[in-house]
């Protein structure tokens, strides 16, 4: 039989990282159960190994270069200034800033609101929220068998626990900013974000990952959203890491009956980015809006794997992923819509649209429907195309330079996704970030 | 004709067995069996070598399991790899020498082969278990220089043609089941349309599995030279039996410059009973190569039978401006499983492909579309349009769509759309309340859903296909 | 034409909905059935058309046209349609893939066959369709669209009336045909219905509001509550309901 390598061993150095995390944790008085959890996750990771491109979910993404690189754990070091790192600084929000994997209260600003509890993960484990958080972390969620989720569970250092009490409308956007300065080379950051939104509550959350050019860091983040009945959550993730960086992200959302969740995934940075997203519609009549926008160039690779899981009747999901590719960039989109037996009257929609600006850009898209129920309405689609030459010429004939014309038409291509961001200041900041893609 | 099993439990009316004296070899597979098959067919040496090469490669492989279907392990040693009805006279050659029981079987299947009754507009090659029993209209076709005969005959009469094209589209080591077929294939059809010739009638092969515990491994090779064109149709049925039988065919199509090959299938293998007992495993590799400029290959399939269907009729678009098409209706009911679709591999410039797939899943069946559209960097100006629709009937069935789209160049335009809908009791009532009886209502819904595919079938087969689907659906709806 | 006696019915294996309805509709008459939500109005309409979700537990429905008396409950839904009964649905059903033209001709010819009348070929049918479209002021483009798919509420209701105009029924049952319609659409629909009124036809209108009755004047008005007819009268009863609501009538049936 031909021997086929289907698994890659966990790099030797990772065991050393685990030992350091455990030592550090013990020094800070980390609870015993957390150390056990770290061991368990690492053992699972070792047993399963990392995937090769023989694995269906990693068919188009080779992670050998990531595993070959050497990473260190973040060290807490004073950073005098971070403002210049934040390209889309937003007024009127609560900002929690993490610098190279460490919470930086001196740069953060947070105005308490009643019914809103925000604690850093280290604090959360020690104070009154410790038990609630422990329970959340002990729950098993889809994606727990992903090697990067295991790696995060073993090594997670920084993070945030956000809890919104039942019926509370949080007035300010909560912005979690993870900054990579490049001052510590080859740092591996494993943030964990846990969000608990009570029944009828309403909250806006943004999670940004921003890296200074030259910061060849590896961010491996896991975000879990637990959304109660009738709650309303608007969550935005912005990834603008350094061009040398690796970024792995897993966002998991589970929503109860009649809740409305909007997830926006904005990707512009990193050399290799893998975005896994799981959205479970667990309660009847839940509504999900899942939007993605990506703009990549050079030799960037972005791999989106999304799963929308209709588990119960009357769920509604709308997914729009759009992106622009230039140079030799590669994009993978694997969007799965599951309709479980019994999930009657499901209404699902999914589209992936790609604009290729160069000859050597590549798109591999697989919009996938798995339906085990007849009383549903599901539609999906994918398109891949180039810019309309007639439109470019028309703009040129009106005096607009070709590059500017292409940029204008490309921006128009993704404008409908930006338009879905009802939070206007956020919409503007995303538009500004997108402008950096077109240079100038 | 004795019916050992009548079709009382099921609407499958082709489930009878013909009592016929057969030349059957021992069960099991090894190099001696392959040598025996080859010698029975008096094959040229290159074919035996091809078979042995494929067999040795196959031995080193594991059976693939990636399709969205489940089945117990297949015991390849429990299968008989050759079974042929014994001729009334010792040498098979003309139809008058075929066992009358075999001829009567085909007549009962609606495929009369005798001079008097045969279909006038279609030339038919009839394959019974492992061998071709006869081909109609050979003389007319010969006048145009067209070769339409059994594969075995082609290997003897036209060895040079067979040697140069066999395995050129589906190599012996393409996949597990293609390798098995390459090792043990027994018969099939061979078509050669010379340069500039438009084939004056549809060509058709009808495959019948009759013997128990046999597998059917046919091999079809169709070559259309420069400027030639042909429309080919295949049909198939098998008796109702409690055990599963394996059908692993390979079809290779080659279209040179400006040539057109249209290949249509109406597949109605025995699907097993309501609880999924018995039925044919239909694991087939079908692929065409648009080798020449402006060539065109078009697949149409109506898949209504078989316990498990696992096939992806594909087109390699090598020639500039070549066109690939795939039109499919796949209906599953009872416990049937179908994982079917196509691959369109765009290599040449300005190549175009169209995919229209309609899946109908009923009862406890599983119906998956799996397709690949690959636009390579050299395929400048390539276009693909795909439409994959599923219709569900009942809440215990499953319909899945797995479209893989790989685009490596920005001059390509690729569009994929898919929808899911259902036939509901409410819809049926609505149509009935406007005066249509249940059959008419189901027929209207099915035709509406499948019309884009049906209109690509040759007329007489389109009528047959519609009737086949209506019959299967009526028992599942409402 | 339609004689309903002591009709009891329930959802198959479910709770009783109709608890003894008696009603007679004669040729040339227009009856209105009013009643609050959940009173059983739509159930009655659907039972007349033969909807499989309901089960008649007692009573009879007789239908008589051309001196031929039939037990309606013995007929399949399509036989009822062929015999001249037409239900305009409250929620017309989407039929993707099947165009209006194909559907209407199939339906028209099925009814013709049943009644022993000659069927129409596509060209002749096209003429008939154009005539009816013009009568209802409908866009001809609409016949090539799949039945009810992506139709607005008003379009769906007008499509029901178009089907009625084509099939030319003897007894039309309009189930909440006015719901969800703006006044202009309501007028158009009512005009369509009025044009189909003849001395040999009859109409049964199911409605929650008196609004539609302004445009289609009924001869008899019944008020249904909790599965029984609690009051029967002339048009003034509808006006009274409009003024006073249903509360004053509720419970009257039990007495």
Description of the molecule:
The complex is a heterotrimer of chains A (440), B (478) and C (255). Chain A is an alpha/beta fold and 440 residues long. Chain A has two domains: 14-41 and 60-386, no CATH class; 387-440, no CATH class. Chain A is 23% helix and 38% strand. Chain A has nine helices and 22 strands. In chain A, the strands form three sheets. In chain A, strands 4-3-7-10-12-14-16-18-20-22 form a ten-stranded mixed beta sheet, covered by helices on one side. In chain A, a hairpin with a 2-residue loop joins strand 3 and strand 4 (102-103). In chain A, helix 2 (32-48) runs antiparallel to helix 6 (147-155) and helix 7 packs across helix 8 (402-419). Chain A starts with 6 loop residues before the first strand and ends with a helix. The relative contact order of chain B is 0.10. Mean pLDDT of chain B is 87; it is low at 1-9. In chain B, the strands form three sheets. A ten-stranded mixed beta sheet of chain B has the order 4-3-7-9-12-14-17-20-22-24, covered by helices on one side. In chain B, strands 13-15-18-21-19-16 form a six-stranded parallel β-barrel. Chain B has a two-stranded antiparallel sheet with strand order 1-2. Chain B has ten helices and 24 strands. The two termini of chain B are 36 Å apart. Chain B has helices at residues 31-40, 45-59, 100-108, 138-143, 151-157, 159-165, 176-184, 425-432, 438-454, 459-474, and strands at 22-24, 83-85, 122-128, 131-135, 147-150, 189-193, 202-208, 219-224, 229-237, 244-247, 250-255, 260-267, 279-290, 296-303, 308-311, 314-317, 323-332, 337-340, 343-346, 352-362, 366-375, 383-393, 398-407, 413-422. Chain B has a domain at 7-311. Chain B has 478 residues and is an alpha/beta fold. In chain B, strand 3 (122-128) and strand 4 (131-135) form a beta hairpin. Chain C has helices spanning 41-49, 77-82, 100-114, 122-135, 153-167, 183-195, 211-215, 235-244; strands at 2-11, 16-25, 30-34, 54-65, 68-71, 85-88, 95-99, 146-147, 171-175, 202-207, 220-225, 228-233. Helix content of chain C is 34%, strand content 29%. In chain C, strand 11 and strand 12 (228-233) form a beta hairpin. A six-stranded mixed beta sheet of chain C has the order 6-9-10-3-11-12, with helices on both faces. Chain C has two domains: 1-84 and 170-176 and 197-255, 3-Layer(aba) Sandwich (Rossmann fold); 93-168, no CATH class. Chain C has 255 residues and is an alpha/beta fold. In chain C, helix 5 (153-167) packs parallel to helix 6. Classes of the chains: A alpha/beta (440), B alpha/beta (478), C alpha/beta (255). Chains A and B meet through strand 21 and strand 22 of A and strand 22, strand 23 and strand 24 of B.
